[in-house]
Design a protein that fits this description.
This protein has 387 residues and is of the alpha+beta class. It has 2 domains: 126 residues, Beta Complex (Beta-clip-like); 203 residues, no CATH class. Helix content is 43%, strand content 11%. The chain contains 12 helices and 11 strands. A 4-stranded antiparallel β-sheet has the order 1-4-9-8, with helices on one face. Strand 2 and strand 3 form a beta hairpin. Helix 2 packs across helix 3, helix 7 runs antiparallel to helix 11 and helix 9 runs antiparallel to helix 10. The longest helix has 23 residues. This is SET domain-containing protein.
Length: 387
């Protein structure tokens, strides 16, 4: 996917000619499929910026969705039918956003220098707690993954999460056309709450309780492994946030010093305490939202969030497929779908089993657990949300 168009601000919005009803269900046989005002507002926004959505589908907030909100067929859809066409100019990704928000772009460029400096220091001073390292490596031995990028700190991938988060905040603060869409981003799950609440990666009490609660939902996942994964993810967020927000560099140093202090306390049989935590709730919330919505746009490191695509849930039995064109991103139906059915994109690569490691990171990244039946199998269970 080659993204060369000007960003969305270059598109002249046009007046919507049709709107969805709020008083009657879109699908008469399914009374619960009635869009909310927010659902209708999203479709109106898409139409203003030339995102072409088929009248056969609609975003609907309903308990009928696997995630409480999703895209449904409101009439029969035929195999091969075009569901949506999104102009590249509407895609929210760093190159597009940098043109709209030059001040944010310049500030993020400075963060790369901080990143390089801190990475050099981290080569000499590992920041991950020893017991987490040992637990995670032991877990890898049980997994089909011989190398786990999530453990080996894929720094570049996590930096784009924060880049997009900063650009999204800039869009909201400046009332950019993207802001109305960004305001519709939702997430509510244990990992999101940990990030938003500013829980420290070494807050053992909170992490133990959260991991146990998540284990009750997915018994196949070990609570200690969940706790380790949660801690790793929170530690990585704190580290990368210190690159993007200069005032958080001191916090990273405090975290490192606290790890050393806790190591001494453990030796002397004192109880470990969580370190002091600087927390930027606005950045944390947006980081978590972006993490659950972004996707790789090509094989060259372009990552972003795509309007409408980000509202579609995912399944191991998808009925939609994405096709990249020169000027648009298109979504097609891959089989006949009856009215009233939810539409899904591909969840994992075809033929790739969902092992314990993938299940753990799926749970944490997207917020919706992988069912027990999906782990180490390729079953038909539906999972995850980005809506």
């Amino acid at each position: 996917m080659i993204l060369r168009e000007s960003p969305i601000s270059s598109l002249s919005p046009h007046t919507a000619t049709t709107t969805s009803t709020l008083t009657t269900p879109l699908c008469s046989s399914f009374p619960l499929l009635t869009p909310t005002a927010a659902d209708v507002a999203f479709h109106d926004w898409c139409q203003r910026y030339r995102i072409a959505i088929s009248p056969s589908v609609h975003l609907i907030t309903t308990n009928q969705s696997v995630a409480g909100r999703g895209v449904f067929s409101v009439q029969t859809i035929q195999e091969g039918e075009l569901i949506c066409s999104i102009p590249h100019a509407c895609v929210f990704y760093p190159d597009n956003a940098a043109t709209c928000f030059p001040e944010t772009h310049e500030r993020l460029k400075e963060s790369l220098s901080r990143k390089q400096q801190q990475q050099q220091q981290q080569q000499q001073q590992p920041t991950t707690i020893k017991w987490i390292q040992k637990l995670w490596q032991r877990l890898l031995l049980r997994s089909s993954n011989t190398i786990d990028d999530n453990f080996n700190s894929n720094d570049d991938e996590d930096l784009w999460n924060l880049e997009l988060a900063e650009y999204a905040l800039a869009a909201c603060h400046q009332n950019h056309p993207w802001a109305e869409w960004i305001a519709q981003w939702q997430r509510d799950d244990p990992m999101h709450r940990l990030v938003c609440d500013g829980v420290a990666p070494h807050d053992v009490t909170v992490l133990e309780q959260t991991a146990e609660n998540m284990h009750q939902i997915v018994p196949a996942l070990d609570p200690l492994a969940l706790q380790a994964a949660l801690s790793l993810r929170l530690a990585r967020y704190a580290r990368h946030a210190s690159w993007v927000r200069p005032h958080q560099q001191q916090q990273q140093q405090l975290q490192q010093q606290h790890s050393k202090t806790n190591a001494l306390n453990t030796t002397n049989h004192h109880q470990q305490q969580p370190p002091p935590q600087h927390h930027d709730p606005e950045l944390a919330r947006m980081y978590s939202l972006v993490s659950s919505r972004a996707l790789a746009l090509d094989d060259h490191g372009n990552t972003g969030v795509v309007p409408f695509h980000d509202m579609i849930n995912h399944s191991s039995r998808p009925n939609l497929q994405v096709v990249m064109r020169h000027e648009t991103m298109e979504i097609y139906c891959t089989r006949d779908v009856d009215a009233g059915q939810e539409l899904f994109l591909q969840y994992t690569q075809e033929g790739v089993a969902m092992d314990e490691i993938k299940a753990l990171w799926t749970y944490i990244q997207w917020g919706i657990p992988t069912p027990n039946s999906e782990i180490s199998t390729t079953t038909t269970t539906t999972t995850k949300t980005q809506a």
